[in-house]
Write the structure tokens for this entry.
Amino acid sequence: MVIVESPAKAKTIHKYLGSHFKVLASYGHVRDLPRRRKPGEKVAGIDIDAGWVPTYVVVDRAESNGKGTARRRSAKEILAELKREAAKANHIYLATDPDREGEAIAWHIEDALGLDDDPRVFRITFNEITRSAIQQALAHPGKIDMDRVRAQEARRILDRVVGFPLSGLLSKKVARRSSAGRVQSVALRLVVDREREIEAFVPTEYWKILALLAPADGPLPREPKPLSVVLAKTKEGASGPTLTNGTAPLADTHGPEQPAKTGLAPGSFLAELVEWDGKKFEAANEETATNIARLLEQAKYTVVTLEQ
């Protein structure tokens, strides 16, 4: 028995595996935090005093997709079907998506069906719906990664503790149906902090001093070298007969004025990472891009993006 999230994926995978396998879909999440608070709860479904312990309930899905469409089964009905088929299966493969959400869905299915310690249950993942990828996954089954499950759980709790109250406040104070979440809030904080730095920035004049130094009887070097610990705050302090290196006066030949700017380099972070890796480790662009993709697939690296 193979359990995936999407019914479309289930049909395709069943074609590859044949009649010896039963491929079923969970239709996404089967359990979630309750929407309403119990008496005494500060946040619905989360016992903060006990150490932020969540309580899960079966998802209360809409029973239909709209007028003129087929009735959509509830999460309870889907779980009941999965439980019936699991009782008949020799092996049960949880093949939900290879991300934190998918890992959490796999754990919720396993827990809701009472299969936590069942030796028949395995976790498999694949990044493409092809015969070879699925066969490779079945040949190397594993177990649910509880670290990733807890990571998703923490994100879900943040949504409930931070996102829900902020969304309500925004709807009242800013615009109706406004929403806030863990991603938007973090990104907004970064933008605000950067804007405050820009507003508080005070331009400071400084002059870096370069000198051509050589013994009295030796040739001058081709390139000037910076004088360590010599940094003038004004143009006048960086030139003139009073400038010395501690033992001998230095003659001022020229002092070009060049304003300096600080800030982020243009271009995306990933593009900069590829360029930096190439310069630092002499790696090819394709090699770096492949390594980044592997890190993303293994959930060891993530990119913060703005989401609706």
